[in-house]
Amino acid sequence: MEAKPVWRKSINRWVVDTRPKGIKKINDSKGEQKKFTSRSDAVEYAVKVNSAQSKGGVITEAQSGTIDAAIAEFKNDCDSRVDEGLITYLRGETLKNYLDDFADLDLNGQRFGDHKCKEITTADISRKLIKQLKPRANQKHLDSLSPKTIKEKLGALKLLFELAIECQWAFNNPAKAVKLEKPKYKKKRKDKNTSFRPDGKLKEIKIKNIKALIETALANERIVGNTPWCDGLAVAFAAQTGLRFGEQAALHWSEVDFKNNRVIVEKSVRKVGDRIYEIQDIPKTESAYRRVPITPQLVAQLKAWKIRSPFSDLVFPTSANLRTKKGKIIYVERRSSFHKMSSNWYRRVLHPACDQAGIDRIRWHDLRHVYASILLELHGDNFHKITKRMGHKSLSTTRELYGHWIDDPETDAIDAKEFGDVLWA
Q1: Strand order through the sheet with 33-36
Q2: How distant is the alpha carbon of residue 129 from its chain centre?
């Protein structure tokens, strides 16, 4: 039996009645009368009802769960899939966070999470909800969400409505028909590389600027659970040790020698395939294998981080393999995941700190050059010592990179005079 919109003069409304026995309903429910002010809305609802009958039965208002209820079911399902090893913990948490972002949005003067699943249309999502999406509170460095992130959030919403259909709370999946606008042009990158001079030589980075950068990064330390994380410390560490990104990301607590105030560089993150990275040992015969002294200030900061950090073998782990409960961090496994590329650190930590400190943006690798500039300040043209600290293969590498930073007219004048004295004495 087909449902049809009927005009009820007594109430001045269009009505679609699903109470007749001929209307197939889920779980043999009694059905209901839905009232509409416009005929078009009534016709649209009747089409949905008739489509639902062909797929198993009509879902009535009383039976349909809310978006909040569907999200709760989805979160339980995610946790089960994580426990079974079907998805990673990070993937599950990301999906749950995306849906929480949707739940608090406004839809027709009412919170989206309070709406019934069956009420939501494709137009609601594309014209009203998507436009309200914005960066979370801990993403202050972003002005807006990227098209990729919006697409990922929409993907989470699609999964939610698939679950709602399984629970018999919705007719169809309105998120599937949403068409996202493709960006008409690429945004100009604000992080244009300013590390080199017009002649191709490295720019010397002023130490006073780096001091301000480190202080800013440490002051803006991210909070995970109720624990200050180590992102700002990572900036301070890189500038004061000169470790390459891969070396720092692979650093274990067992390689931090607190007794002698130094770190042993014997591992590095290396790419071994398409999007496949692993931590590998550095052969002792290679120049990159070295011992680097660390300042008393850095030792104190590392000790404080070790005390408050989760149970991790890595000094600078990602926050991917952890859970928080009532503000307390609980690690899933001791061997936590490592950073694979520096882009996460410099976009989320380094560049915002540069902007706040009022200095030009630099690359993560430039923090290594900062260390080199400090060594040059200390040891002058003792390139043998600097080469050893930097882990370069040869003296020529160090000279080529940093030789032009040594510009001492007074010393040059003295050398010229002494040369003349020897020649003409």
Answers
A1: 6-8, 13-17, 33-36
A2: 22
